[in-house]
Amino acid sequence: MKLWVAFLMLVAATLGQELPLADQCDAEACRLPDCRCSGTNIPGGLRARDTPQFVLLTFDDAVNVINIETYRRLLDGRRNSNQCQVGATFFINHEYTNYVLVNELYNKGHEIALHSITHRTDQNFWREASVEDMRQEFADQRIQMAHFANIPYNQIQGVRMPFLQMTGNSTFQVMSEIDMTYDCSWPTISHVSPGMWPYTLDYASIQDCPIPPCPTASIPGTWVLPMISWIDQAGFFCSMADACFPPNTPDRTNEEAWFRFILTNFERHYFNNRAPFGFYVHEWFLSTNPAIERAFIRFMDMIANLHDVFLVSFFHTFTFSLK
Length: 323
Known about the structure:
Layout: H1 2-14, E1 53-60, H2 67-75, E2 89-92, H3 99-107, E3 111-114, H4 123-127, H5 131-148, E4 158-159, H6 170-177, E5 182-183, E6 187-188, E7 199-201, E8 219-224, E9 227-228, E10 230-231, E11 237-238, H7 255-270, E12 277-281, H8 283-287, H9 290-303, E13 309-312, H10 314-321
Parallel strand pairs: 1-2, 1-12, 1-13, 2-3, 4-5, 5-8, 6-9
Antiparallel strand pairs: 7-8, 10-11
Keywords: Signal
GO biological process, one term: carbohydrate metabolic process
Pfam families: Polysacc_deac_1
């Protein structure tokens, strides 16, 4: 069924036709594991206290001989409370990437995902991107990544847009065509307490759209992992940890204050509906701010001693959401 839908979408895109708008979600028709309505309810109807709290660590951009040292220092040998290895997700673009090191990360159990081939700095390009543009940036990158990093093609399942700039339906159409699983580019500032759980685009999303254009079409089986924003000390929202700016954040030399800042945002999830908590960051932010890196290491040490908190890759989170 999904292949047939993808074929029809490809035909529509080729003919320049607009896809029909998605309808309001029908909870009776939209059921796991193939479909999930957007919202804050926990998958499977679990109580919050019975739900694992997932912590999602992601790094964006190229992997190279410089930042690999940070990744090794932070992650090598680290385990969750159940003694399973932790997992991070790397959203990687092509330029300046060392594919031997990408292969190292994959073989250590981390997830490799896509961040485009070109990572063009012209944000208008991404905002106005066509389906064909997105095929060249992501469908081609998936082939490229599998080949040069020696990773099985079907193990590459996720996408994050450069600058978190949404493209409307285009990226999701391409993801459906090539049978990719999820996108994690879409911030929310309206659904942070409680936070949104992952959902599919079979039906219209209730998620707010801070960086338009957001998808409006029905694209069955394609998942959104909402980027639940942090809240800084002045009450403003930031989609990534390194997008929280002074003076509304602690001094970047103050390890204790940054540990408390991370913990405050984590607790908004842990003591609520346990929607996945994201520590989304660029490597430079940690390597150039040693106090923040130490604070984050303390945070990882703390959650490693909690029996119901797990630092995992996005794909593990998606797998849980299917239940």
